[in-house]
Amino acid sequence: MATAMPNKRVDFRSDTVTRPTPEMRQAMYEAEVGDDVYGEDPTVNRLEELAAHLLGKEAGLFVTSGTQGNLIAVLTHTFPGQEVILESESHIFYYEVGGAALIGGVQLRTIPGKRGAMEPAAVEAAIRPHDIHFPPTGLICVENTHNRAGGAVIPISNMSALAAIGKKYSVPLHLDGARIFNAAYALNTSAQEIAAYFDSVSCCLSKGLAAPVGSIIVGRKEWIERARKWRKRLGGGMRQAGVLAAAGIVALEKMIDRLPEDHKLAKYLAAGLAEIPQLEVTPPDTNIVLVDVKQTRLTASDMVYRLADQGVLVTAFGPSTIRLVTHKDVDRGAADWVLTAMKNIIAGEA
Ligand code: TLP
Known about the structure:
The protein contains 14 helices and 13 strands. It is an alpha/beta fold. Ligand TLP binds next to helix 3.
């Protein structure tokens, strides 16, 4: 259904909607480039080294998207016919179009989490013993921050317990760290400390960090070399990709330190929404706010359209849940706009 859109709008659909900064555009313009399939793009090489260093791993690989990074990680860690343990609402399971099953030939074994965190005992119980009937467990995936749990932060104790289980059974761990720097700030630690619990990590440059394109995966050197082969196989071997990597470097060097502003704005927005009696708000750990609109008598998708009519863009996240994400291109004024629009809609409905 097409919706008439006011000229001006505020976009809380995702932190993926962020536009590159002027500094990024300048860096892209000036980027030194070469053919990255030959390993000759100096800017891509610099980005990969920088990401590996920030995340405390031996090597990095610039990939086209978070989805591609996660898929390459699954493909590099596993063999067809294996089983991958992951949380029931995780992005890899929920939003990656079944790529791991289709392309990787793996079976996904989901474990329901509490605010995105899988109970270590449940993960251990899901690890397959040797038996002629069973698919061998090939990988455990964790998502931090956890998108569908509302940007929830997975505690260090949980990651550490899962890492110990992986070690005990010789099963590798991959972190979907699309928003790992948000997690690091919320946990008052470094991304390196978080990454240390995992064999590989994917991290998005194109979300809160505002690069126009791309993600990075990091891991051991030999693992990244195999991942590079998978990237090529998937058609992700880019050529003069330094033009894009240049923005990624600015993302990692300049944009991480401002993420706390997004968390602060999410708290402001959540507090304002929580004052509206018909709304049930999940208090945000980071930059994602989930709101249950059941008591307004509107469905989530009706609410999305009604808000869009007032120039407020949000995402439907379930039958009665909407998601609002804060990022560098929205501010307090934009949050106030949401609050006013929401109050108007609810008043009209009452
Ligand atoms: N998430 C997007 C949508 O796909 C839902 C969003 O708007 O939040 N891991 C996590 C935890 C993610 O949230 C996302 C994107 C990805 C991976 C995939 O990244 P991209 O969009 O670059 O493929």
